[in-house]
Amino acid sequence: MVSRIIPVEQFDLIIFGGTGDLARRKILPGLFKRFADGQVPEGSRIIGAARSEMDQAAFLTFAEEAVRDAEGDKIDATVLKDFLAILDYVAIDALGEEGWSALAEKMREGPVRAFYFSVGPSLFDDLARRLQQYDLVKPDTRIVVEKPFGHDLETARALNKVLSAHFDESQIYRIDHYLGKETVQNLMAVRFGNMLFEPLWNSQYIDHVQITVAETVGVGGRGGYYDKSGAMRDMVQNHLMQLLCLTAMEPPAKFDPDAVRDEKLKVIRALEPVEPHQIVRGQYDKTDSESNFRDDVENPSSKTESFVALKCHVGNWRWAGTPFYLRTGKRLEARDSEIIVVFKSTPHSIFGSDAGGGHNELRIQLQPDEGITLKVTIKEPGPGGMRLMDVPLDMSFAETLGEHADTPDAYERLIMDVIRGNQTLFMRDDEVEAAWAWTDPIIQGWEAVHDVPKPYDSYSQGPTDATLLMQRDGREWREIGA
Ligand code: NAD
């Protein structure tokens, strides 16, 4: 198989917040990998811009350590040296004039220009205004913004207003890194590139859909932020919603940004309100050696959820009667993210009701490994009569695609898409607002009744009520980590 690296144009990428955690863990290592693969054209530059008191040499050391941490021993010293040679740094204050003239002097005509706002959203307005004031924005300049995109509908609207006051929507790239995952795009390839699934992709044949994003980590050092956010805002409103959209959307007429995003928007707008009894909230408990959620967020009376499970319906012809179950949480048994499309059982078994089998499932796994599995029913081997069993037809990418399974990290792909000017995998303003419009009443409902999340054991499957949510409907979750 030939690896196909699609070249991008020469670019200048300016990372505001270039000395932050996200730059260190994701952006710089991601750029290095694209560079090492030969995808970064000669003459391109990456400019760190941050308030940190660093000079060029200190930033290069920071970037080198970031790449070494991510890549380990497999690093080629010459490639690393060449990569560091395209880095530059400018100390800048988003809230003052320091550094802006220096940045303006570094700008050149010609290459694609992209500004990555890897800073808190409170700085967006100042950054945007100064970019305009120093005439740094050209018609095809791209602006990349990170999550969280708002805290609720009102704040998301305010952020959109700030951005739209300075940039055209076609210039704005709102990152949801789940959309950059190989398997998520493969979901579109599987659905719309095969004849096999689409005729069955509706409530006549699909019993239900499960979407799980389970993490083993707790809130770590992000306690302050997380206590104000919670799993609903931090995960469901964006990542799980995006996975739901790609699973449920109608086939777009073409794979182009607005065609895809129009269809996703229709799904969000078709989501029916969720009744309180269809949601379970949880908070993780302590273990012998680790603290509980309330300790981690340093708030003994915190009512924020570290776990959510809910049942929702997409109210349209395709999905009427097929529930979507979403579940996400921290400190769960395993790091395990997947979409499972569970087909209905065969209407009648010619082999007898106790023959077994008949449970087709399409499982799209995102984490820890990426892959797609289709469970089909076959005869159990041996002389035991006509007994059936469900076996997986497995397309785990690592095995099937060999060396090419080393798929780019989501950030690598998304940053290259920014340079290409392709917005397909980025959220549009109306999409983000529609997602908040669905999420807000749920959160407001909890606040109104001072809802207290159910405690659950760390490293478990989550609160037992989440299991019951499914069992009440005669269904069950796939076990996390199974
Ligand atoms: P961080 O606190 O580690 O870094 C913030 C960066 O912003 C630093 O480089 C700092 O120098 C710079 N900065 C702060 N004030 C500034 C100012 N006035 N002028 C210029 N630069 C200034 O934050 P982070 O974890 O890198 O996160 C950045 C953004 O990305 C946040 O919005 C965060 O929510 C989002 N995000 C982070 C992660 C992650 O894993 N870290 C994941 C998803 C989204």
From TrEMBL:
Span of domain Glucose-6-phosphate dehydrogenase C-terminal: 188-478
Entry EC number(s): 1.1.1.49
Binding site for NADP(+): 17-24, 51, 147
Known catalytic reactions: D-glucose 6-phosphate + NADP(+) = 6-phospho-D-glucono-1,5-lactone + NADPH + H(+)
Residues where substrate binds: 177, 181, 215, 234, 330
Enzyme class name: oxidoreductase
GO CC terms of this entry: cytosol
Domain Glucose-6-phosphate dehydrogenase NAD-binding: start-end pairs: 14-186
GO molecular function, one term: glucose-6-phosphate dehydrogenase activity
GO biological process: glucose metabolic process; pentose-phosphate shunt, oxidative branch
Pathway entry: Carbohydrate degradation; pentose phosphate pathway; D-ribulose 5-phosphate from D-glucose 6-phosphate (oxidative stage): step 1/3
Location of the active site: 239
Pfam families: G6PD_C (PF02781), G6PD_N (PF00479)
Domain of life of the organism encoding this protein: Bacteria
Function statement: Catalyzes the oxidation of glucose 6-phosphate to 6-phosphogluconolactone.
Family of the protein in this entry: Belongs to the glucose-6-phosphate dehydrogenase family.
Entry protein name: Glucose-6-phosphate 1-dehydrogenase
Species assigned in the record: Cognatishimia maritima
Taxonomic lineage of the native organism: Bacteria, Pseudomonadati, Pseudomonadota, Alphaproteobacteria, Rhodobacterales
